[in-house]
Amino acid sequence: MQSTAAKGAAMAEATSRERGIDRAVAILEYLQARRGPVRMGELAKAIGAPRSTLYEIVGRLTAARILEPAGEGGAVFFGRAVHYYAQTYVAGVDLLSRARREVLGLATETGETAQFCMLDGDKYVVMLNEPGRRTFRITSEVGIRLPIPWTASGRLLVAHLDAAGIAGFIPAEDFTLPNGERIDPAEFVAETGAARARGYAVTQELVDRFTRCLAAPVIDRDGRAVATLCLVTPLDTPAERQGALLDTLLAAARRLSLAPPGAVGL
């Protein structure tokens, strides 16, 4: 039988290994949030790891090309292997693979910035983004987690929830916009109901006062919006063109859906 000392050593090794995995994940999450090279000192402080341990983990991730040296002062950033993994992920997930074609097609056909968006926990995130042809381009970075009430897509992605469900799901602070203005939760609930009834959502001047966002739901077999397709347009876009853009957007969303967009939350 294994001795008490041996069992203790094995448990300590397992705990150390788990802590190392947790720190590796923390490194990747911090780099994603920073979106740029980070020096080792800052990284050690950010994730609360001893430098000796951090150097060991970073060394292993660098050897695997998950990280790579970037800039001066021993800074590191994501390596090329992350790009390979991401491309494989998109190609291997049917919905994302088809969405990539639709997003590219929307941007090419309309000349506007096109996006494919989903929920990440209790936040909204752009999964795919294709800038339009305008000299002044409206872009949103892929992978940045934003409060749901800030977006047109958010009103569709939680349209299956009632008022109590929305209150329990969206943190109270997420109803405050970057400029300090606060979205009335009751009005937000009403807007989700209206979006569900229409089968699309339109918002303007929430995060950027010069833009309007058109969002159409991608529906699963249960009639729930699992994702959205969006067009981000200048605020002064004429109503007639906005209507044409919305028709094009809804057609693209129907091609991705397993149920008609009008069936949101049904």
UniProtKB/TrEMBL annotation:
Show where the IclR-ED domain sits.
Answer: 81-262
Note the Pfam families from the entry.
HTH_IclR (PF09339), IclR_C (PF01614)
Q: Which UniProt keywords apply?
A: DNA-binding, Transcription, Transcription regulation
GO BP term, pick one: negative regulation of DNA-templated transcription
Coiled-coil spans in chain? none
Q: Where is the HTH iclR-type domain?
A: 18-80
| An annotated Gene Ontology molecular function | DNA-binding transcription factor activity
Name by which UniProt lists this protein = IclR family transcriptional regulator
